[in-house]
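Check my protein:
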Amino acid sequence: MIVYHPNPNLNSYHSSSSITQKPSFVPYKFKRFRIKILNTTNEENTKKQSQTNTIKRLVLTNKGRTKLNITPDRQFYEYPRFVTHVDDNFISTLTNLYRERLRDDMEIMDLMSSWVSHLPSEIKYRKVVGHGLNAQELAKNPRLDYFFVKDLNKDQELESENGSFDAVLCTVSVQYLQQPEKVFAEVARVLRPGGVFIVSFSNRMFYEKAIGAWREGTGYSRVQLVMQYFQCVQGFTQPEVIRKIPGDDPSKDDNKSPFSWVMGLLKVASGSDPFYAVIAYKNFKPIYE
């Protein structure tokens, strides 16, 4: 049983009780008819939902799921780390992406979160629920209205109702999932139709805690791996890839030079973090006016 904790560092927070409820009184002559329609709709939605989050195939081999450090993740993350794991350029790119793709009326789940969510500071979302492995980090995150602690490598069930969220985010953490197929299936289940799942990552990691398929990969292969996570679950749209590599500016003609790739490598070696995001929607990509 997962307990959702209100963020103690917030003066106020959203809850289900803050949503305006329709009067429960229903005229008797309409009551039976309306209940019948709702029950039929729920049955249809349940049937569609069971088809939506079906795992079509497994992506990883047993070897690909292994970690060098087999210490339980709850123990590894027992002490809070109040640091950012990527540089300012990465964070700026990610925040701008959220600004473009997320609307202020959305209910958002920040999966595998910490003390910062990188959401645009000027936008107040309807509700943000955080998940992670360290309660102290999550409690310090000012963007979270609620949070819960759970090891997704032990139990992948998110314990939220079907269609609870408009967006799910996973920032620089997908490399630690040992059962990504099940986690992505759960994300598909809790997303509303048209909801978006944004998975962002770079080349940084806790090497001993990253799965073998990630450790042994390259930037390109890791993008392909996350795309396969989406594609193995019924209901996601074709994944979209956003990439921003230091030194990679296709608008400049000098990138056609045989020496341009050398300059790019030098910029990467200087410490700049490459940015990757793989994005997909549940059932369809909505169009907002």
